[in-house]
User: Fold these one by one.
Assistant:
Number 1:
Amino acid sequence: MTDDKDVLRDVWFGRIPTCFTLYQDEITEREAEPYYLLLPRVSYLTLVTDKVKKHFQKVMRQEDISEIWFEYEGTPLKWHYPIGLLFDLLASSSALPWNITVHFKSFPEKDLLHCPSKDVIEAHFMSCVKEADALKHKSQVINEMQKKDHKQLWMGLQNDRFDQFWAINRKLMEYPAEENGFRYIPFRIYQTTTERPFIQKLFRPVSTDGQLHTLGDLLKEVCPSAVAPEEMWFTWVMPKSDVLMFYLSYC
Amino acid sequence: MAEEQESTLLLPPSTAPEAEVPAEVSPETATPEPPSSAAVSPGTEEPVGDTKKKIDILLKAVGDTPIMKTKKWAVERTRTIQGLIDFIKKFLKLVASEQLFIYVNQSFAPSPDQEVGTLYECFGSDGKLVLHYCKSQAWG
């Protein structure tokens, strides 16, 4: 784990330069300037955009404001997907900054979950962590932790505190010496070429004859329709807590 | 007819009318081959598994949440957790504003847009996915 510290830091501190523009049909009392922000790849839109919200609400009347939501080129952005995943899936081939449109009306019920408070984001995040640990350790590690440890994981993410986060997360990344890895690898594969939300299946890190599985083995097994490896690229999006999320994109 | 009522229950939210919940649905009286449009049907002899469209779900109540008369259901893989929540709420005659939480492994609450098929693949055992449901947050 210590060898990977540089990689972990690079992933954690990844940023996407973003330009937020208010939707043209929103009613404003004066012109709304765009708002620029560096978004953390590992976080969630509704967790890091308080300043964006305040900026635009300053030029709007209270009665014209309801729940904020974000859209990129007509696609509502799911706040419960990590920011880096959203960008890589939808906008990675476009020039920077990432241009996101901000809405305060007409919430798209069919496309987005509501996010009435930070508690909802925390609950979603912790559920992901628990689901990942169910796969890695049959939930033993996460269940043995105290409530304050869970809280520390969340606060680490919320406050962008790498050390605070990994002090707890490292325990979720350990496995007994006699094993060669987790029980199952927690992963999700997102593809731009399909309507399916993502691929998630059981996959052991070690084969029956003791060979360590590679990423290529995983892809061959769960995503056989993918074209030859040299024709696709993928990004491993942060083992946030260990839902290893990576997605494929076809060149 | 019970089947038709089950079908209308399972239309996507945008088109679903306020449907009647079947008064009595039980495995014993269910027909052998439910219509393919019914995304949720009582668990019967319909084969479930990898290549089949439906998976078996066993619903267990937590705390003082009302217990469903029919606990075992065959559900289409692409049905979401939100769809299942809506279905259980209608079946238990809960009002729309009442919350319902669903848990896997008595440990995590999957996202409302998660598909039951994926959960079955990863967390099913003995040919079924056990889900606990509760009107309050049971496992945080």
Number 2:
Amino acid sequence: MTVTYIHLLLLLLDPSSALMSTQDPPPSLGNHSMDKNDVDEAEGHFTVPIAFRVFSVDYHHVQAPFEIVLWIMLASLAKLGFHWSGRIPAVVPESCLLIMVGLLVGGVIYGVRHTAPPVLSAEAFFLYLLPPIVLDAGYFLPGRLFFENLGTILWYAVLGTLWNVLGIGLSLYGLCQLGGWGLEEVSLLHFLLFGSLIAAVDPVAVLSVFEEIHVNEQLHILVFGESLLNDAVTVVLYKLFESFLRMPSVSGVDVLAGGCQFVVVGLGGLCVGLFFGLVAALTTRFTARAQVIAPLFVFLYSYLSYLTSEMLHFSGIMAIVTCAVTMKQYVEANVSEKSNTTIKYFLKMWSSVSETLIFIFLGVSTIQDVHMWSWPFVSSTLFLCLLWRALGVLLLTAVVNKLRRNAVTFRDQFIIAYGGLRGAICFSLVFLIEDFPKKRLFITTTIVVILFTVFVQGMTIKPLVELLDVKRKKRVLPTVSEEVHCRLLDHLLSGIEDVVGYWGQHYWKDKFEHFNTKYLKRFLIREDKQPKSSIVRLYQELERREQMGETDEGKRERSPAIEENQTHSRSLLPEEMDSIRRILSTNLRNFNNKHITAYSRHTLHQDFTVDASRKACLRRHQSLGERHSSTQTHGSQWDDAGSQGACLSRSLTVSQSPRSAHRDPHSTREGSLNGPVRVTFEGLASPSSTYLQGQDSSSARMPKKLSFAFENEKGK
Amino acid sequence: MGSRASSLLREEDIEEIKKETGFSHSQITRLYSRFHSLDKGENGALSREDFQRIPELAINPLGDRIINAFFPEGEDQVNFRGFMRTLAHFRPVEDNEKNKDPSAGEPLNSRNNKLLFAFRLYDLDRDDKISRDELLQVLRMMVGVNISDEQLGSIADRTIQEADTNGDMCISFSEFIKVLEKVDVEQKMSIRFLH
């Protein structure tokens, strides 16, 4: 039984599959099938009577997708198993376990076949596995924090990477020249090339490790932003050194051209991303009638931006990140709730699968036939990587702290240096190097470095964070007060900056916001979807969550995006919406009236005419939501529905929730309907409001209607 | 200072300002040239019109209140001293300052004073309480015209409710401080004054 299973497994790892490639040209399908023994095979190779076959197995027909699916299945099951395994996730990061699974599978394959298992092909990695991860990262990037720290991030990404590359390359070269390890003939350029690929911090590895350690957002964005943006530098340097290797001689002009190329690559990626982001935003504007495919546009345009910039030899990562960041706010405003959820879920799912696959393949590909090992080289590379990174971070931070508003502390610096994990990007790049005598050594060293950083650094970073008492992540959502007051502070600071004549962060942020609101939003967002202020959005979000019975404190520390997915609203049919509106407005009117009796100053105003109240109700309806075409019908329906005594919702006046035990003059005003339609619907599900306590809901409807009307008048 | 015809800053003035606000010499001179460029009337003091001439400030939602904050109670002119005193609130808090002797009084850019400055932006009538109306006014200015009154009212109520501990439906200064205790006010309310 096991033999058959293993043979089946071997079939799956047939080198002719699209996902993986070995160094040798893959043998043709036909020959290979002949080599396999006694498993169900393609028909026609057996000498069987030509009777009509009732049952047959035709594996080759489905071989390629079958194998791909099985690999993905393996990856996903490994991930499942990981999360079910009790205490292990707390100690060992997921990436480590996945690599170990990969090692296991690779070992099995090697043991059975006695040849090297398939290796992760660079093409598959760069074209299929990497984009979803980077897109996911870009889409959920905390925009404001990123731009506030952009200077520092760029500083680390560009200068830090350059420093590391040159440092590692040159020192390795020097050491090899002196060391007598048999590596003297390897040229400086080769070492620089090696340095360029090994110095780069990998976003995949950083993401997977930092996701579990929950450091404060600023630190997270610094490390993560650096890992994303250093792609431009890495790409340029790698290609530069590679082309230098091919050229007979290198002159100073070439180096200069390389420097210019860096700017071109970075800015090019940026522009491509911007272009596609804006086009995507514009396209989603028109998806109202075909909402189901709206998420597809997001993915298509992002992937297109990545491919386009790869085609033009720009930085694909920068393009896709820019695209995601650009289109996010417009897409979110344009598409429906469901589509938003779909986008988020799919992104998370794809990036998760990709990440798992990458790590498993890393493990599998480690089992190689021809490793070239050299103790001194490997250990010195490892040591130099750590050393140069630490030095680089120290020096750069010392400079950048003078220009920052709040300094990067030493603990943060340590985490930045320690969190510079290498990952699959280095791995793929090292395979792409043109063959030269010591290539095997480079491959081995790269693998060792990756494994070391992921295992040792990945596993120890969490205890270190706790040991060093690094500032951790705050709660998920701020309170409304914080948001309001922080907004006040933002405006205040902008104003002061204007007075002082200083073009600081607030100035540019304001300018961009102004431009955004005036031009971009008008152009890219549907007419009926008004852009809302962030204060209102936060308030609505908090309302929604509270109605769902969650509190915003003490939640599991998952990303806000995932939590949103849990609490997304259902979309309702129009008839339902109308009846809900009707019911709510009636009942709100009722409970608002309940307050009235408590305050003497409102009893005077019971003389108002019915018309005034009707008008008030209509106006109230207009504030209810986006579609207010049926206000007239609502007005008339009120009298019919008036007798619906049951007060359904605690409605949206959360502010009067259990905390305040007594009524107050000020609270009447907020008895009114607040919050948008969306929140309204959630309110239906929740238990009835506490206001019902001791209050009669249906008596004296008339005067209450009027005083409510007066409320409205007064409020204007 | 008002009696001087020329607009030069005297050394002793600089020293006094330095002691009071904590700015460095070069910062004071730089800010003085800014003060001077704003002072179109050349009378050594700024009026409200001078501030309103700053274009970005005019479109700032809280522009009027910010301008107001520069002027002491009931006055229409602010001299350089007052200008610097207000700006001192926005100096970044440096670590070495925390060790200065407490007898010198709280520096203008302490967390408390920063928060008091922000508090005063709400509290126009200076009764040391932010009432619902005052909050509503500021909210209306910040949030724009898309939001209905009812919605705004409920946001205001929630804001008060989150802060209010003694149930008077107003936010006192201590409640204000408490609500913002998790926010890094020292960092948020600081401007990098170039040396």
